[in-house]
Amino acid sequence: MSEATLALVHAYYDAFNRQDAEGMLALLADDVRHEPSQGVARIGKAAFADFLAHMNRCYAETVIDPIVLANAEGTRAAAEFMLDGRYLVTDEGLPPAAGQTYHLRVGAFFDIVDGRIARISNHYNLADWIAQVEAG
């Protein structure tokens, strides 16, 4: 496995946990492709920055104990972690926010090009999230 790739993905999640959008963006390729569990892919740092601003407004989230694996070439990586969160502001098409907490298992996949993250693909169970928020 590529130690540099492992360090890159861990740095990404460290910046995420600090809600450090600039730190996250610095780790990305200019033409990064973000593939969310639901919705349309976003292309480029500007689109990803807009996504981060939206997420930081609506949610307060922390990645817990990420396990990161990478291929020998360091061109691909995968992570699994638990996500602890609080739903702060109602997000369009989702239940009303009232500070509900949630705990989700998340999987993520990365492409790495020239030492930068070129693709992020996140996967979680939205139905589980909705059930937790509605019970909340």
Note the main attributes of this structure.
6 strands, 6-stranded mixed beta sheet, alpha+beta
How would you explain this protein's 3D organization?
By secondary structure, this protein is α+β, with helices and mostly antiparallel strands. The chain has one domain: Nuclear Transport Factor 2, Chain: A (Roll), CATH 3.10.450.50. Helices cover 32% and strands 40% of the residues. It contains four helices and six strands; from the N terminus they run H-H-E-E-H-E-E-E-E-H. The radius of gyration is 15 Å and the shape is globular. The N and C termini lie far apart (41 Å).
Secondary-structure map:
Elements: H1 3-17, H2 21-25, E1 28-35, E2 42-43, H3 45-58, E3 59-70, E4 76-87, E5 101-113, E6 116-123, H4 126-135
